[in-house]
Write a structure and sequence with these properties.
The chain is an alpha+beta fold. Helices cover 23% and strands 33% of the residues. The protein is built from five helices and 13 strands. The chain is elongated.
Length: 344
């Protein structure tokens, strides 16, 4: 991997104009504890669990101890969170008017544990048979539902709360997200297909020799997560560490890396396939490669297969290296989707 500042200039994000944490090189920290407490309450309080005539609801969080922080060092986000929770639940069996109460203790919600390894210890205050049946529904079915909500908290921590932790670069305006999102002014939805010159372009009649690149990589996440990571503008800005604009729909344009990369989505088949016209800004006008990304579910991981046709032969090596250095490695580092990628 090239040293900082010595990489392909088309990919490099320039320094900040105000010289604040230039290139995000210095360690910065954001306290996520207050936000985390509020988000955990939103996700868990009122959660309903029903099965075999048993109806239960999480009524309150009686204990929420711990902390969460996000650190940015050398443009890499590092997430720390460690929580100990006690949930108060209430439920009843069938048409019985008798209600039972108890606790669901979560002692090890932290970045060191996978979701399936988080403990949910359920107890009930009564010793009756009905109380035991209610408790078992929460222990068996409720555990998976609670873990799902905890997984949503982790996802939100890494996407929503981490916004703006990586600072914009020189001459970069704040990228619109969420409700502030604005349409991409540049109309590239009618751009020609690969190697098809547009009228009145200066490159008309110039033959471009092209090559095809194929690559495969494993990610420790389901296809749905990787698909969202590649198509959701908030996540894209997190792993590119720069401004991004995209309209995630067929025919929708996208602009990445502060304008260094641009293109248009030709096919979006969630969660398994993305086809797009893709180009560097420095390529001859009207020339686009075609990128096809397939996401294959292997139960315990996802296989990503990339095929890119129409790469100008004089730019093949740098384009190939760019996928690894500026796509796959940052995605894995940012979202923890597995070990670092292997050799090309």
């Amino acid at each position: 991997m090239a040293k900082w500042g010595e990489g392909d200039p088309r990919w490099i994000v320039e320094e900040r104009a105000d010289a604040t944490n230039v290139n995000n090189w210095h360690w910065t920290e954001k306290n996520a504890t207050p936000w985390s407490k509020k988000r955990l309450e939103e996700l868990l309080v009122g959660l309903k669990i029903e099965e075999d005539g048993v109806k239960c609801e999480i009524k309150d969080i009686s204990k929420i101890e711990g902390e969460a922080t996000i650190n940015n060092r050398k443009k890499k986000l590092i997430f720390f969170y460690e929580w100990e929770l006690e949930l108060e639940w209430k439920g009843n069996f069938g048409d019985s008017k008798t209600s039972y109460t108890g606790k669901a203790e979560i002692p090890n919600l932290s970045e060191e544990n996978d979701i399936e390894d988080i403990d949910v210890n359920v107890s009930v205050k009564s010793n009756s048979d009905e109380a035991y049946k209610v408790k078992e529904v929460i222990r068996k079915k409720g555990t998976d539902i609670i873990r799902e909500k905890l997984g949503q908290y982790i996802k939100d921590l890494k996407t929503e709360f981490s916004q703006n932790l990586i600072l914009p670069s020189k001459d970069q305006k704040k990228s619109p997200t969420g409700s502030e999102k604005k349409p991409i002014k540049k109309d590239i939805s009618t751009l020609p297909v690969v190697s098809t010159p547009a009228p009145n372009e200066q490159h008309i009649g110039v033959k471009i020799n092209t090559l095809t690149y194929k690559y495969q990589e494993d990610f420790l996440c389901p296809p749905e997560e990787l698909y969202i990571t590649l198509t959701d503008v908030v996540r894209v800005q997190a792993w590119t560490r720069s401004a991004a604009e995209m309209e995630t729909e067929k025919g929708g344009p996208f602009v990445l890396f502060n304008g260094m990369v641009e293109g248009v989505f030709d096919e979006l088949s969630s969660p398994n396939k993305i086809v797009m016209r893709w180009r560097f800004k420095s390529w001859p006008a009207a020339h686009y490669s075609v990128v096809t990304i397939q996401l294959i579910d292997k139960q315990d991981h996802t296989v990503m297969r990339l095929t890119q046709t129409g790469i100008p032969d004089n730019d093949f090596d740098r384009t190939k290296a760019g996928w690894r250095q500026y796509y796959w490695v940052p995605i894995k580092d940012t979202f923890g989707f597995g070990a670092r990628v292997g050799s090309l």
